[in-house]
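CO-FOLDING WORKSHEET

Operator: S.A.
Ligand of interest: zinc ion
Run index: 80
Mode: holo prediction, single chain
Checklist:
[x] sequence pasted
[x] SMILES validated
[ ] output reviewed
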Amino acid sequence: MDDQNLSDISMKGAPACGRCHMLVARYAPQVVASTGTYHRECFEAWYFGRYGKRPALLAGANGDRHRFQVREAAEVRKAA
Ligand SMILES: [Zn+2]
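OUTPUT RECEIVED:
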């Protein structure tokens, strides 16, 4: 798979964004949701398109200030 090769070359262990499928750099602003990892911009664009409002993001997921969790995770799961 191309995804596997990309991971090996550039950023070992970096997840691919669930929306644009580009790798999410370790220190890039990112959102960790139940459905996967997203660039923060990608997640906000997707969320806004779906719900018509910006998501409530909580910084500091897993002790990393670049990572955000979605406060309305239950709402996202319900709608998915
Ligand atoms: Zn993305």
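REVIEW:
The longest strand covers residues 30-33.
The pocket of zinc ion is lined by residues 17, 19-20, 22, 38-39, 42 (CB under 6 Å).
[x] output reviewed
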